[in-house]
């Protein structure tokens, strides 16, 4: 089943969004990480770590500034067996929509299309 | 430049960034958040500690991974990822032709990952023009690279945190452009 990955500048945003999704779409796997050394920021290491734990094709969400850059670099260096997609949709709304779609069995390409629609 | 010389040059950047910390901090205080000096110092301290002997490819890759994990903000990952990408095209002995390829990959990586083109007051203004310096002089001399960084002084930032300063960013050399001068200078092939 498709998994979700969230990278935020803030630990609270990452864990809060994960909690929201897990309550609304039970059974969907969400990897979330935010903040660096107890402060605000993102780094590639934490994204690498999450990617090493995914067990299926995954849709990634990011928040502001350099989180996209770090995410793109981590995905480019990813050497695992799964397809990793980056969604441009807002982190809370986008990951929530993706989780609901995953839970009702929508395939990943369709979900990516719906996520692109959100930012048109 | 063989692997031993390259490792020496990269380790030497630790001393360079210790010496230039206050200069970079002063520039970044003007048009950023003031952490570029300490970030670069931290990054190359880690490079000196962690990057050990190996092939040219290994050394560049290790340097890249170390910079990515030890420098915050956008510049660490950009420099780090560029080193990783450069490792993929590096030959055991970096000659003038190979160096041109490395700089080309460096510029392309910063452009694609940093989403920059030229004239936006960023490190890219130095890295992308270093190729021309190399073609003209066969070297990456400090004074020639410095001219490229000086050119960013009158530019108005439209990328990165400096963009929030808009017109006020004029009159200060971009800190990333300045640190790029030192990094590129480490690849200077000395005259035999």
Oligomer: heterodimer
Number of helices of chain A: 5
Instruction: State the secondary-structure class of chain B.
Output: mainly alpha
Q: What class do helices, strands and sheet pairing of chain A give? A: alpha/beta
CATH architecture tag of chain A: 3-Layer(aba) Sandwich
β-strand number of chain A: 4
Q: What is the number of domains of chain A?
A: 1
Determine the N-to-C terminus distance of chain A.
27 Å
The counted number of beta strands of chain B is 0
CATH class of chain B: Mainly Alpha
Give the H and E element order of chain A: EHEHEHEHH
**Rg calculated over all Cα atoms of chain A:** 13 Å
The CATH topology of chain B corresponds to: Serine Threonine Protein Phosphatase 5, Tetratricopeptide repeat
Q: Give helix % range of chain A.
A: 40-55%
Helix-strand blueprint:
The complex is a heterodimer of chains A (120) and B (192).
Chain A: E1 3-8, H1 11-24, E2 30-34, H2 44-53, E3 58-62, H3 67-77, E4 84-86, H4 91-103, H5 108-118
Helix pairs in contact in A: 1-4, 2-3, 4-5
Chain B: H1 3-19, H2 21-31, H3 36-50, H4 56-70, H5 75-87, H6 96-114, H7 123-137, H8 142-150, H9 175-185
Protein name (chain B): phosphoenolpyruvate--glycerone phosphotransferase
EC number (chain B): 2.7.1.121
GO cellular component, one term (chain B): cytosol
Structure commentary:
The complex is a heterodimer of chains A (120) and B (192). Chain A has 5 helices and 4 strands, in the order βαβαβαβαα. With 120 residues, chain A is of the alpha/beta class. Chain A has a single domain, classed as Phosphotransferase system, mannose-type IIA component (Rossmann fold, 3-Layer(aba) Sandwich), CATH 3.40.50. In chain A, strands 2-1-3-4 form a 4-stranded parallel β-sheet, with helices on both faces. The longest helix of chain A is centred in the N-terminal third of the chain and has 14 residues, at 11-24. The model of chain A has no long low-confidence stretch (mean pLDDT 94). Chain B has a single domain (3-185), classed as DhaL domain (Serine Threonine Protein Phosphatase 5, Tetratricopeptide repeat). Chain B is globular and about 45 Å long. Chain B starts with a helix and ends in a 7-residue tail after the last helix. The mean pLDDT of chain B is 91. The interface between A and B is medium-sized, with 12 and 13 residues. Chain A: It is an enzyme of class 2 (transferase). Chain A: Its EC number is 2.7.1.121. Chain A: One of its GO terms (molecular function) is phosphoenolpyruvate-glycerone phosphotransferase activity. Chain A: This is phosphoenolpyruvate--glycerone phosphotransferase.
């Amino acid at each position: 089943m498709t998994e979700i990955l969230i990278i935020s500048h803030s630990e609270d945003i990452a864990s809060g969004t994960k909690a929201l999704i897990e309550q609304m779409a039970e059974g969907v796997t969400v990897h979330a990480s935010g903040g660096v050394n107890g402060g605000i920021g993102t780094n590639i290491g934490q994204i690498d770590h999450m990617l090493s734990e995914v067990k299926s094709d995954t849709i990634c969400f990011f928040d502001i500034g350099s989180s996209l850059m770090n995410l793109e670099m981590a995905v480019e260096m990813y050497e695992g067996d799964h397809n990793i997609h980056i969604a441009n949709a807002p982190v809370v709304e986008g990951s929530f929509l993706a989780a609901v779609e995953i839970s009702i069995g929508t395939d990943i390409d369709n979900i990516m299309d719906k996520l692109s629609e959100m930012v048109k | 430049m063989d692997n031993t010389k390259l490792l020496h040059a990269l380790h030497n950047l630790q001393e360079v960034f210790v010496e230039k910390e206050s200069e970079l901090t002063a520039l970044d205080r003007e048009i950023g958040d003031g952490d570029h000096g300490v970030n670069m110092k931290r990054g190359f301290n880690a490079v000196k500690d962690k990057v050990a002997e190996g092939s040219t490819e290994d050394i560049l890759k290790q340097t890249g991974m170390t910079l990515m994990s030890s420098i915050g903000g956008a510049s660490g990952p950009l420099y780090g990822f560029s080193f990783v990408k450069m490792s993929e095209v590096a030959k055991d002995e970096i000659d003038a032709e190979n160096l041109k390829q490395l700089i080309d990959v460096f510029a392309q990586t910063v452009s694609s990952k940093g989403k920059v083109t030229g004239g936006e007051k960023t490190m890219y203004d130095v890295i992308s023009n270093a190729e021309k310096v190399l073609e003209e002089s066969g070297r990456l001399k400090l004074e020639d690279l410095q001219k490229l960084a000086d050119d960013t002084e009158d530019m108005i930032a439209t990328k990165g945190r400096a963009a929030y300063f808009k017109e006020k960013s004029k009159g200060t050399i971009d800190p990333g452009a300045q640190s790029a001068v030192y990094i590129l200078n480490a690849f200077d092939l000395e005259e035999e």
